[in-house]
Amino acid sequence: MSGLVLDGLVKRYGSFTALQRTELSIPHGQFVCLLGPSGCGKTTLLRMVAGLDNPTEGRILLDGADITQTPAHQRNFGMVFQSLALFPHLTVGENIAYPLRIRGVSKADQGREVERLLALVRLPGVADRAVSQISGGQRQRVAIARALALSPKLFLLDEPLSALDAKLREQMQIELKLLQERLGITTIVVTHDQREAMTMADLVVVMSQGRVRQAASPIEVYRRPADSFVADFIGMTNLLRGRIAAGALAVDGGTLALPGLPPAGEATISVRPEELRVHRDAAGPNRLAGTVSFVRDLGSHVELRIDVAGREMIAVATPQDRPDVQPGQPVGVELPPASCVVLES
Amino acid sequence: MTRHPPRRILDYGPIAFPAAMLLLFFAVPFGLMIAVSFFQRIEGGFYEPAFVWSNYARFLSVFFGRVLSFSMMLAAGVAVLSVTLAFPFTFLLTRLRRRAQVVWLVFLLSVLSLSEVIIGFAWATLFSANAGISNLLVMVGLLDAPTSLSPSLGAVLTGIVYQAFPYTVLVLYPALSRLDPTLTEAARTLGASPLNSFFTVVVPALRNTVVATLIMVFVFALGSYLLPQLLGRPQHWTLSVLITDQALFQANMPFAAAMAVFLVLVSLALVGLSLLVGKKENAS
User: Fold this and answer.
1) Interface predicted TM-score (ipTM) of this complex, two decimals
2) Domain that holds residue A324
3) What are the angstrom distances between the C-alpha of A10 and each of A21, A79, A287?
4) What is the pTM of this model?
C-alpha cells in the first residue's frame, strides 16, 4: 500500500524493551501525532522511522519498499529535533542551504531556495544572521525550513515546540498545521502535550510503556478511548469500576443501565466531566447519589467536585448550564448511557 | 557561596603562600635569567654583570636561525599530526559508552605519566634494526631485511607525537563531549553521510577549539629536549638542546639565558593567542 507502514517493529536495549511489537499504517498526507508520557517509546519510534536507530525486529515500508536498512542520509526525510540542532558555525541561510550544498546544488539555486523557504515559514530577510542572533521562535522556523529544503517524503518532528513559551507554542501549533495542509506532506510529530496533538493531528497515536494504546482521530480518542490509560491521559475523565449484573453495572453509589456491556464479570467505564448532569435530586435513572465537595468557578466554565461513595467525580458545566449547588449539598449525578464508554480491561 | 572583591589587606591572606612560592621559585629565577641574558660573557671564564645586547644580537646568525626554524617546523609538524590523529579519535571516544570512555581516559593518563626518557628509549628500541618493528615488516613481507629507522626525523616526530597525543586528547575531550550529538544526526537526516557530516559539521563547529589545541600542542612540542637527542641526528636538535649545550658545555650562560627568554616569550605569546581564540569561541 502507499504510505508508511510499520510492520512488527520492536526496539530492545539489552533487556529493556523500548518499543513493543508495533503495527501502524500511515496514509500519505496525514498529520500524525505520537502522544504519550516521557519514556513511552514515542521518540524511539520516530528515530527508527528517521533511520537514526535500527529496529531490533520488524520492517519499515514506504510505498511498499522496505527501507529498514536504508541509512538515514539516503531516506530523504526532513527532521526537526527537540534541540533544533541548528549548526552554530553557519548563518541562518547556510543552515537552510546545508542539505542543498551537500547535494551539490549551485550557489544561485541555493540562494533562491533559501528565500523561498524563509518566505514559507514567514521569516524573510534573516538569511545573513547568525543563528545566535535570532529568537527562539525564529530558530524554530529556521529548523522547519531546513527540514523542508529537500521537499522530503516524510516530515518528522521530535517535540518541536517544547522550548517555546505557552503563547508562542499555541500559535506555532496552528501555523504548523496550516503549513502541513498547504504542502500536503505526511508529517509525524512526537509530543507529550495532548492539547498540541488535538490541535494538529489527523491521527493521534497514544503510547505508553512502549506500546501503542490507541490510534484514531483526535475526537475519537477523546470520545471513545480504548482503555483507562488513554481515557485518563487525554483530558479529564471519570473512571468507574463495577460488577455486571442483569445488563447493568453496579458501582459504588448506584446502578447504571448501559448498552454494550459484556454479559458478566467486571467492567470499567469512562465518562467525561462535561457529559455529567448534576441534579439536586438523587432519584432518577442512571443517577448516583453524592455530595458536592468543591466548586471551582473559572468564569468560562464551572468545575464541580462531587464525592460519590468516597470517590471523587468531576463535572464540568458551562455558565449557562450551571447547576445551582453549594459545597456540602447532596446531589444526584446523572451519567447519560450514550456518553459512557466501556473500556477494554 | 558569596563572591565579593577583597576589601582589606587581610582578605588576600589565602593566596599569600602560593604567591610567595611563585615569587621565590619562579619570578626570582626568571628575573635572574633575564638579567643574565644581558650580562657580558668572559671567554674561557664565566660572565660579569653588564648591560649588553650582544647575546640577543647572536640570534641573527644563520646557525641560530636554522635551529630556531627547525624547532618551529618540528613543533608545527607535531601539532598538526597530533590534532589530525587525536580529533577523530576523541570524537569517536565521546560517542562510546561512559565506562569505555573512562577506561580509555585512564589509559591515556597513564601514557601521559611516562617519563620522556622511557618514551625515548622505548621508541629507540622499537626503531632499532635487531629488535624493532622493521622485523615485523620483514615478517609480513613489506621489507627485505630489518633496518634501523632511528635516528631520523620520522623517529623524532613519532616520539613527540606519541608523547603529545594523550595531552591533545585531553585538551579536545571537553569540547567534543559537549558537542550536541543531534548536530551530526541532523546532518545525516539532511543527506550527509557519517564521514561527510564529520567534515561539514563537527570539524567546522569546533574550528576555534582546533586552532586553540594546535597552539597548545605547538607550545608543548616547542620545549621538547630529550626526544630529539635520543631519536634524531644533530640536525634534528631543537632550540632547547642548543640552550642546554650553550649553558652546560660551552659555559656561555648569557647566550643560553637570552635564548631561554626568547623561547618563553614565544610560548607566552602563543598561549595568549590560544586564550584569545578560546574567548572568541565562548562569546559566539
Assistant:
1) 0.82
2) 236-342
3) 5, 21, 46
4) 0.80
